[in-house]
């Protein structure tokens, strides 16, 4: 598309206006300091599991002067060395040369991908259905509004605990999280910006960057900006207090948000983010008390360009096996998907304009699972309102915290940072009706629920998969399933998929059979969603070679079939049906020597999430600085804190379950011309 001089002037004006809103649209990435002085070193498992002292010894032996070394998680260690003139590649090569080192990577900064009866619900167009890309949360709430057993962790800049739409004297959505920034060393303390390292206070003190900051070595490559209140914005989308006559509505109306602070001034380091991922999921982290409220969903609205580091992939692999869904923003560069969104096993979320095309700044590629609204302004005139801002909770402070507030068309809020919590909230609704769903099943059913195809507009060029980091598509383009994922996120579609049962197949052990002999097929491990039961099983033959096989007891949970002879293959399928008529199927392949299936051996028995109880003993005053976390109780583990035990005697204040019929109103935004 060719731009006229008028278009160019209008675009320049828009960019000028955009820069004036630094609090809601900050720079996505900052170049890492060169040469790097922070690394993550993973030692090979052996007779000894390794220690910070061993990492220190290895680095010293390679001629590096070690400043700090500390354990992160599962054999990973954070190493900080004094610059000696060597390049980053040379330091990595020296570390990797030692036989005890499994891998060594840069401890890179990650950044917030954008900074970002409820009277403001009419402005939350992305939750309604008047625009093609909107997720229709209202229809999803007809199926479920959430569960008191749901925990979603927001790994971000922390949260303003005093925001009345997140926590107040009569309702609360926030669990006591943790500040994971700092570790050891002055750089961690300065990044944290709260005067200390890791502590149980996840409140956001502000992450502004001043001109004076950029004159220091630590922040020299960072961009001057106001405080973003990014984590507070993400938390509002995940679960603002709903139907309370105040502010906005959250994607989930019941359940908990676990604030975990990993981003400070100019972002945060991988070592802190990885440790926080493990901690938020309930795994032990050295030097930090165990998390009594393990999360089933981690929302990471952060990232940076580059390939998925081995350190991220290690922790992701482990968390996925625990059933933890990791939702990550795709990135705001318009090029290949950022890390860690490009790691295997996560749900990478791309960004859409209100009409369903890819918003110009969203990164794209085959790693994306699906896409969701990211916010776009439509208009190009300076000072004009941003018509499709993602409205959510925020704060007025430009540096230190000010008054609680909300984003709007003037203080607008856009970025794939906000696509991710929309999908995390939908996944939370899914888990609320079927807690047996694994991370992989959640992603698959999110994709199946995205039933509306991407709209096609002949006037808009088609998106393509980036060939490299320089292949940037920074303008609107028509999505394909290769570039923007399976489709557009849809709340009712995803919840309906979650309500389906899960077909499970227990294979013979060992799964080696003898030609012509009977093979046992067991589907008794199948399970239905919360409140439902599996009522029927059906085994069928889909394809075969030679004589058609006969399945014995084909309409029962346990069936059998004689294995074929020679090179024949039987392709069978299992169909389970619940008491509401919902179904799921699973394939089974039988040869003359083995039987295989992609179905899980057991679908689990925790379809209804167990309630998590937590009592707020005090509510912070609005507009203050950091707050002291209140005592807590309940949830996935105990606490030896006597205040926590006393708090267990209190009443749970999160008891809001009124109907949501008032949210039926359509968006008041008129559809504007595409830019």
Write down the CATH class of the largest domain. Alpha Beta
Q: Which fold name corresponds to the CATH topology of the largest domain?
A: Rossmann fold
* CATH superfamily caption of the largest domain: Peptidase S8/S53 domain
The domain tally reads: 3
Strand order of the largest sheet: 7-8-6-10-12-13-14
Alpha-beta content class: alpha/beta
Low-confidence stretches: 1-33, 622-675
Whole-angstrom Rg = 26 Å
CATH architecture of the largest domain: 3-Layer(aba) Sandwich
Major sheet summary line:
7 strands, parallel
**Proportion in helices:** 10-25%
Average residue pLDDT? 85
What shape does the CA trace take? globular
Straight-line distance between termini: 11 Å
Number of beta strands: 22
User: What share of the residues does DSSP label as strand, in percent?
Assistant: 15-25%
Q: What is the number of helices?
A: 13
Features of the shown structure:
675 residues; alpha/beta; Alpha-Beta Plaits; Rossmann fold
Write up what this structure looks like.
By secondary structure, the chain is an alpha/beta fold. The chain folds into 3 domains: 38-107, ACT domain (Alpha-Beta Plaits), CATH 3.30.70; 111-499, Rossmann fold, CATH 3.40.50; 518-597, Immunoglobulin-like (Sandwich), CATH 2.60.40.10. Helix content is 19%, strand content 18%. It is built from 13 helices and 22 strands. The chain has helices at residues 5-20, 52-61, 88-96, 137-141, 186-192, 230-239, 270-280, 310-321, 419-433, 439-449, 481-484, 491-499, 642-647; strands at residues 38-43, 66-73, 76-81, 101-106, 109-112, 146-156, 178-179, 254-261, 268-269, 297-300, 302-303, 325-329, 347-352, 368-373, 393-395, 404-406, 518-522, 534-543, 558-562, 569-578, 583-591, 595-597. A 7-stranded parallel sheet has the order 7-8-6-10-12-13-14, with helices on both faces. It has a 4-stranded antiparallel sheet with strand order 2-3-1-4, sandwiched between helices. The chain has a 4-stranded antiparallel sheet with strand order 18-20-21-22, with no helix packed on it. Strand 15 and strand 16 (404-406) form a beta hairpin. Helix 7 (270-280) packs parallel to helix 8 and helix 9 (419-433) runs parallel beside helix 12 (491-499). Residues 1-33 and 622-675 have low confidence and may be disordered.
């Amino acid at each position: 598309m060719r731009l006229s001089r008028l278009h160019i002037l209008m675009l320049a004006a828009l960019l000028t206006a955009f820069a004036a809103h630094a609090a809601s649209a900050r720079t996505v990435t900052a170049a890492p300091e060169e040469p790097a002085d922070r690394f993550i070193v993973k030692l090979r498992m052996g007779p000894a599991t390794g220690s910070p002292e061993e990492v220190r010894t290895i680095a010293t032996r390679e001629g590096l002067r070690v400043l700090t070394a500390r354990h992160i998680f599962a054999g990973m260690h954070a190493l900080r060395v004094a610059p000696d003139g060597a390049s980053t590649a040379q330091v990595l090569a020296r570390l990797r040369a030692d036989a005890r080192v499994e891998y060594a990577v840069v401890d890179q900064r990650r950044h917030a991908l954008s900074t970002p009866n409820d009277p403001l619900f009419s402005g939350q167009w992305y939750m309604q259905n008047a625009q093609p890309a909107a997720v229709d949360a209202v229809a999803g709430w007809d199926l479920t509004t959430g569960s008191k057993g749901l925990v979603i962790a927001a790994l971000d800049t922390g949260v303003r605990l005093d925001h009345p739409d997140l926590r107040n004297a009569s309702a609360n959505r926030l669990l006591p999280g943790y500040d994971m920034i700092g570790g050891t060393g002055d750089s961690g303390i300065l990044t944290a910006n709260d005067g200390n390292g890791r502590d149980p206070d996840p409140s956001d003190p502000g992450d502004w960057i001043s001109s004076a900051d950029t004159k220091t070595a630590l922040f020299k490559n960072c961009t001057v900006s106001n405080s973003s209140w990014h984590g507070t914005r993400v938390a509002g989308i995940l679960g603002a207090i709903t139907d309370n006559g105040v502010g906005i509505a959250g994607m989930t109306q019941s359940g908990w948000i676990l604030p975990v602070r990993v981003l400070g001034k100019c972002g945060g380091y991988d070592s802190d983010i990885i440790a926080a991922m493990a901690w938020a999921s309930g795994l032990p982290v050295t030097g930090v008390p165990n998390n009594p409220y393990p999360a089933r969903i981690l929302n990471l609205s952060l990232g940076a360009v580059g390939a998925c580091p081995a350190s991220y992939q290690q922790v992701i692999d482990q968390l996925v096996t625990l059933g933890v869904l990791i939702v990550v923003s795709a990135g705001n560069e318009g090029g290949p998907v950022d890390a860690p969104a490009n790691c295997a096993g996560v749900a990478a979320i791309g960004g859409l304009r209100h009409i369903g095309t890819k918003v110009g700044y969203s990164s794209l590629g085959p790693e994306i699972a699906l896409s969701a609204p990211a916010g776009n302004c439509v208009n190009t005139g300076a000072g004009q309102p941003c018509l499709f801002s993602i409205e959510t909770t925020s704060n007025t402070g430009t540096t230190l915290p000010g008054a609680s507030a909300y984003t709007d068309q003037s203080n607008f809020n856009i970025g794939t940072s906000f696509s991710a919590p929309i999908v995390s909230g939908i996944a939370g609704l899914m888990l609320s009706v079927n807690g047996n769903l694994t991370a992989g099943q959640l992603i698959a059913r999110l994709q199946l629920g995205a039933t509306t195809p991407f709209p096609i507009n002949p006037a808009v060029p088609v998106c393509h998969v980036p060939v490299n980091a320089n292949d940037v598509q920074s303008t609107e383009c028509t999505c394909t399933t290769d570039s923007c994922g399976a489709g557009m996120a849809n709340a009712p579609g995803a919840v309906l998929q979650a309500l389906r049962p899960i077909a499970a197949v227990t294979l013979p052990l060992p799964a080696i059979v003898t030609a012509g002999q009977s093979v046992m097929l067991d589907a008794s491990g199948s399970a239905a969603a919360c409140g439902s039961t599996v009522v029927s099983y059906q085994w069928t033959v889909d394809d075969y070679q030679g004589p058609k096989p006969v399945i014995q007891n084909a309409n029962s949970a346990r069936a059998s079939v004689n294995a074929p002879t020679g090179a024949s293959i039987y392709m069978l399928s299992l169909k389970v049906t619940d008491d509401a008529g919902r179904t799921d199927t699973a394939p089974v392949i039988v040869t003359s020597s083995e039987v295989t299936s992609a179905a899980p051996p057991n679908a689990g028995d925790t379809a209804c999430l167990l309630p998590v109880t937590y009592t707020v003993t005090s509510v912070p005053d609005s507009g203050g600085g950091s707050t002291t976390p209140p005592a807590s109780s309940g949830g996935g583990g105990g606490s030896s804190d006597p205040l926590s035990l006393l708090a267990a005697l209190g009443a749970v204040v999160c008891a809001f379950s009124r109907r949501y019929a008032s949210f039926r109103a359509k968006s008041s935004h008129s559809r504007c011309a595409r830019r």
